[in-house]
Design brief:
Low-confidence stretches: none
CATH class of one domain: Alpha Beta
Structural class: alpha+beta
Radius of gyration: 19 Å
Largest sheet: 7 strands, mixed
CATH superfamily of one domain: RutC-like
Strand order of the largest sheet: 8-20-19-22-18-17-16
Distance between the termini: 7 Å
Helix content: 10-25%
């Protein structure tokens, strides 16, 4: 069974044929969409534009998403996970986005990850929405003080977990390690509600604020105490702020009902870390974020060259996929986190994707972060693959 690009016969917003990513990729009833904003071609302006306030942008993005899902034989009722990338300015109007989302989705209750970004690639966009749809969705698990989780075909997605108590007040103000403990305590409650434990966590994504950096290394103790015996794939990205203004850290968890198996292309540096290069669960490969870091020397290469860093990073991503028994065709989805200073040359990354990847090109989302954990890095790639 091979992955297929989802190609709507009618997509009036713009022509998507020339891009190095797919609007969506489907395999085995699972559909992974690229992030979508309210962008559309404006004949009068002769370019792609984003128009409207927050609620209208959300409705336009979901109209696109609905058209793509329809081409995949699915509807919004099949959505199990939503990631909403919201600009630092847009988060102040996030209640409008949530209301528009509820209006569009009706009774569908997916897991929702809310990520506050520096900006989006379409500078006038306030929000970009990325969805995952799947077969045989399990009922949403939630309760008083418990963020929603949604499962599909053995994968369980947790909504974003912030360091807050059941009343929504932040816990451990100013202390990123205390906030991490609060996050993992809440995550444990969610996992127990769906019959799982931390041993089945296959991916964590940490979003942290600049003030969290000084103490962030200490959060590894919490990971070591909570996770394992197989450490999950992991990503850590610095953003200007989080959905709660006093939060220093947010973690997005993914778990699996299949037993996780670590995948490592003989990179010794991971022996001392609390995450794996990748984790295989069934035929799904949950990978850690990669930057242009030489796994042997731990030095960042191609300083100041986002295109060179992207090429080196994608080559290492493919080494991980091959170590799991796959190839370029196995890559289903990527998220590219780019620092602001790399934007003038970022278009050149499309040529790298065209050269190194295979059709159907992965679904892809690109967002601008505040910074990356290694200041020399200009891009970090968060990949996901499905193995044959």
């Amino acid at each position: 069974m091979s992955a297929m690009a989802v190609k709507p016969t009618r997509f009036p917003w713009y022509s998507y044929d020339r891009y190095s990513f797919s609007l969506g990729v489907q395999l085995g009833g699972r559909t992974f969409l690229s992030g979508h904003t309210a962008s559309e071609y404006d004949p009068a302006a002769g370019r792609i534009c984003v128009k409207g306030a927050m609620a209208n942008q959300v409705r336009t993005a979901y109209a696109k998403i609905s058209a793509i899902l329809e081409a995949a034989g699915q509807t919004l009722a099949d959505v199990v996970r939503i990631v909403e990338y919201v600009t630092a300015g847009g988060i102040e109007r996030y209640a409008e986005a949530a209301a528009a989302r509820d209006e569009v989705l009706g009774r569908t209750r997916p897991a929702v990850n809310t990520v506050v970004v520096k900006r989006l690639l379409r500078e006038e966009a306030l929000i970009e929405i990325e969805v995952t749809a799947g077969p045989a969705a399990e009922p949403a698990a939630a309760g008083p003080g418990i963020p929603a989780a949604r499962g599909s075909a053995g994968v369980v997605y947790l909504s974003s977990i912030l360091p807050v108590d059941d009343s929504g007040r932040v816990v451990g103000a100013g202390d990123v390690v205390a906030q991490t403990r609060a996050i993992y305590e809440r995550a444990g409650r969610v996992l127990r509600a769906v019959g799982l434990g931390f041993d089945r966590v296959v991916k964590t994504v940490d979003y942290l604020t600049p003030p969290a950096l000084a103490g962030y290394k200490g959060t590894g103790r919490v990971r070591k105490e909570s996770l394992g015996p197989v450490y999950p794939g992991a990503v850590g990205i610095i953003m200007p702020r989080l959905a709660h203004p006093e939060a220093m850290l947010q973690v997005d968890f993914t778990a699996s009902r299949d037993v996780p198996v670590a995948v490592n292309p003989s990179w010794a540096r991971y022996d001392k870390l609390t995450y794996s290069p990748a984790v295989r669960a069934g035929n799904l490969l949950f990978m850690s974020g990669q930057g242009a870091l030489d796994p042997e020397t731990e030095r960042v290469l191609h300083d100041g060259d986002v295109v060179g860093q992207a090429a080196y990073t994608y080559e290492n991503v493919l080494k991980v996929v091959r170590a799991a028994g796959g190839g370029p065709e196995s890559l289903i989805k990527t998220i590219e986190y780019v620092i602001p200073g790399a934007l003038p040359q970022y278009r050149g990354v499309a040529e790298v994707r065209t050269r190194l990847l295979r059709e159907p090109y992965p679904a892809s989302t690109g967002v601008v972060c505040e910074a990356l954990l290694r200041p020399e890095m200009q891009i970090e790639i968060d990949p996901f693959a499905i193995l044959g």
